[in-house]
């Protein structure tokens, strides 16, 4: 999809569809909608009068123009009540419009920036949201649909944002470009998470990371098992043993400040398929475990956006990647391994493998000089029992970093929710034979998983994001699309870019 911002009069735009909008309760439309209404001899006001257009959120009305304006169709998008309207609504609206325009007859779309005029929102923020929403909402995973239907193949080719005020165009164009960068990174994470595990093993995932790292300001290292062993990463390697696929530890570095170490490390769980290992999962629904590398996909994708936005900050991504398989050499329940920081771990359930790979990933990030740590993982089924798919779990040892992340997520239109980290929860992880065991029993499963990770962060400011409840969506809704949701990627980018201000 090409996206451009131009100065002009939307009623004169040459496009297959012109998109304007209406707040609920408005009887005579003003601004761009008013201009189109006049050009159509009052057709929009007439439809409002008839009660066919009410401006409700989610309402979309197509009007055919029969030569009265250059565009053959006008889409009037309802904005809902003005009080409830914000930049997140703009992003979601743009996504819904992009999907509604997925028809062979519609290739070029001209749109106003929803929210910027009568809505009173910042025009740049709205332009970013329109671009971001369109690209996010139009996303589909069609790689294996050899007989996709016409509508599926008919994504918008050209989206033109039309602004009447010439002085605003330059700023809006830059903002729309930021929206593109954010959305493309998110769609990359979606592509990786949607990819079936037979075509995305740890080696494939590391290869995709290398593609991202071909940007001139990124640097990549893919660590092999031999070096992991030399570094004492027995925890990560214990998960890889059951698979014939070798584990890969991906590091991507961005040095926009050029200082010592890194302002921030993003550490993502990269289990390309989670069978559970010897503690094998039930058959029902196991296919969803192809997405157990969403954390890794998210941090790799975030680096693509960081590189494009080029903040003056030093950012690191670490993705420990492996399959969790029950092969003949697999780790057995009761085995004891040790992580890079020397802590011994009794593995009582091989299905609690995410925390095992993150343990070494977090240690490695610290060794490389990370001053703040954020890990992202589809870590526990318990988090979706606790929070459902309305938000993801956030656990932390540091209030200040948690608040920074929450602001970054809010700006992305996402919600995280904090779970407590009282020290008593840590007692559930006491082992008879080692420093810690890898499961904490039935109660507070997401928190004990975080308590396990805390053993490997060594008091560094740290935020843990458990995205197991939100990584996959069952249906399209606003900017979120069916399958891999793409949540967390833009939040991570916002957080990383924010380190430029220090
Ligand atoms: N990858 C799973 C968590 C998961 C479950 C992600 C559902 C997405 C959807 C993780 O590795 C796992 O199996 N966790 C166990 C931990 C338990 C054994 C302590 C779980 O949640 O059951
Ligand atoms: Zn598991
Ligand atoms: Zn897992």
Spans where pLDDT lies below 50 across 5 or more residues? none
Beta-strand proportion: 15-25%
Radius of gyration equals 24 Å
Mean pLDDT score: 97
**Major sheet description:** 9 strands, mixed
* Overall outline: elongated
Bound molecules: ligand BES, zinc ion
Secondary structure class reads alpha/beta
What does the secondary structure layout of this molecule look like, with pairings?
Elements: E1 2-7, E2 17-23, H1 31-39, H2 43-50, E3 60-64, E4 73-80, H3 87-100, E5 108-111, H4 123-137, H5 150-153, E6 158-163, H6 166-194, H7 202-212, E7 218-223, H8 225-230, H9 234-240, E8 248-255, E9 264-268, E10 270-274, H10 294-309, E11 314-324, E12 336-338, E13 344-346, H11 354-367, E14 373-377, H12 382-387, E15 392-396, H13 399-411, E16 416-418, E17 436-437, H14 445-454, E18 462-466, E19 472-473, E20 483-484, H15 489-498
Helix pairs in contact: 3-4, 4-6, 6-10, 9-11, 10-15, 11-14, 13-15
The chain binds ligand BES and zinc ion (ZN) (2 copies).
């Amino acid at each position: 999809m090409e996206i451009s911002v131009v100065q002009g009069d939307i009623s004169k735009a040459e496009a297959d569809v012109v998109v304007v909008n209406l707040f609920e309760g408005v009887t005579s439309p003003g601004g761009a909608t008013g201009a189109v209404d006049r050009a159509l001899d009052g057709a929009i006001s007439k439809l409002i009068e008839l009660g066919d257009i009410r401006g409700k959120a989610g309402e979309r009305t197509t009007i055919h123009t029969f030569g009265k304006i250059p565009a053959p169709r006008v889409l009037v998008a309802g904005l809902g009540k003005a009080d409830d309207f914000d930049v997140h609504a703009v992003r979601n609206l743009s996504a819904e419009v992009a999907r509604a325009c997925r028809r062979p007859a519609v290739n070029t779309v001209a749109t106003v920036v929803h929210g910027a005029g009568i809505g009173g929102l910042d025009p740049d923020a709205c332009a970013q949201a329109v671009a971001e929403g369109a690209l996010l909402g139009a996303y589909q995973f069609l790689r294996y649909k050899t007989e996709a239907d016409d509508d599926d193949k008919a994504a918008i080719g050209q989206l033109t944002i039309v602004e009447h005020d010439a002085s605003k165009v330059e700023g809006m164009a830059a903002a729309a470009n930021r929206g593109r960068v954010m959305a493309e990174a998110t769609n990359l994470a979606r592509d990786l998470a949607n990819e079936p595990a037979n075509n995305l093993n740890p080696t494939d995932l590391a290869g995709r990371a290398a593609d991202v790292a071909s940007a001139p300001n990124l640097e990549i290292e893919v660590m092999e098992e031999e070096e992991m062993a030399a570094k004492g990463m027995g925890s990560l390697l214990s998960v890889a043993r059951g698979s014939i696929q070798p584990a890969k530890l991906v590091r991507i570095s961005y040095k926009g400040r050029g200082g010592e170490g890194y302002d921030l490390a993003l550490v993502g769980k990269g289990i390309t398929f989670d069978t559970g290992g010897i503690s094998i999962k039930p058959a029902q629904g196991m296919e969803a475990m192809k997405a157990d590398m969403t954390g890794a996909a998210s941090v790799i994708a975030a680096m693509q956006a960081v590189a494009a936005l080029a903040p003056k900050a030093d950012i690191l991504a670490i993705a420990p990647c492996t399959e969790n398989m029950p092969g003949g050499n697999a780790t057995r329940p009761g085995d004891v391994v040790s992580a890079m920081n020397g802590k011994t771990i009794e593995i009582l359930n091989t299905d609690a493998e995410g925390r095992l790979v993150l343990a070494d990933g977090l240690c490695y990030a610290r060794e490389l000089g990370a001053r703040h740590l954020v890990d992202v993982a589809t870590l526990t089924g318990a988090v979706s029992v606790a929070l459902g798919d309305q938000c993801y779990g956030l656990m932390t040892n540091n209030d200040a970093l948690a608040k920074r992340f929450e602001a970054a997520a809010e700006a992305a239109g996402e919600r995280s929710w904090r779970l407590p980290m009282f020290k008593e929860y840590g007692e559930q992880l006491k082992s008879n034979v080692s420093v810690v065991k890898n499961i904490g029993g039935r109660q507070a499963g997401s928190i004990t998983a975080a308590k396990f990770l805390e053993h490997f962060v060594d008091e560094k400011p740290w935020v843990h994001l458990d995205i197991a409840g939100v990584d996959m969506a069952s249906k399209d809704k606003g900017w979120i699309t069916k399958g891999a949701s793409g949540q967390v990627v833009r939040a991570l980018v916002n957080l990383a870019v924010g380190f430029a201000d220090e």
